[in-house]
């Protein structure tokens, strides 16, 4: 599988930035990921991300770290943070940015170490892919948390992207199990990656799944465009 994200991040880190990542989705929209944005400093981060970083404590695992911008900030603040990503290119960039602790693997394959904070930003919970897999991921996250641990994640309710009926309801195709399940494909400098599934979950569904798996779920803050920050904590 082509490491599209990793190639783009390495190009930018090595001074070879010339174009951005193009994304295609099952929603029928073509969009772009601006590579320099993935290297943003704290002051350029959305308020939700800044709030999440301010809530971090203890030993931290940055899941789906990408270029490592959140980990860099936390390490500079003196935290014991580990940056994890399945992209070899992303992890190499994190190493070049002087992050001390990095792991290249899928989160589902990572075991053994426990943390106080699991951080999943930039819709990091999207790695779940499909709603029916969320329970398994929550159980795995539970195995990585210390007794008073927390999960900080942001996501978006993308119901606004569907047509609204006259009675206020939304028209969702019968072929979709849950409207927040989106298939993406990325291309960069003529290379095209394999399609992958990505999950956007509304807060009420997140809360329901969290409670069913013995997590307390708190809505910490909401953004300007249907996005939100949630905190999940282990119940006794």
UniProtKB/TrEMBL annotation:
Zinc keyword on record: no
InterPro entries xref list: Methyltransf_25, SAM-dependent_MTases_sf
Domain Methyltransferase: 60-149
Enzyme Commission no: 2.1.1.-
GO molecular function, one term: methyltransferase activity
BP-aspect Gene Ontology terms: methylation
Alphabetized UniProt keyword annotations: Methyltransferase, Transferase
Signal peptide limits: none
Residues passing through the membrane, by range: none
Protein's UniProt name: Class I SAM-dependent methyltransferase
Species in which this protein is naturally found: Croceitalea rosinachiae
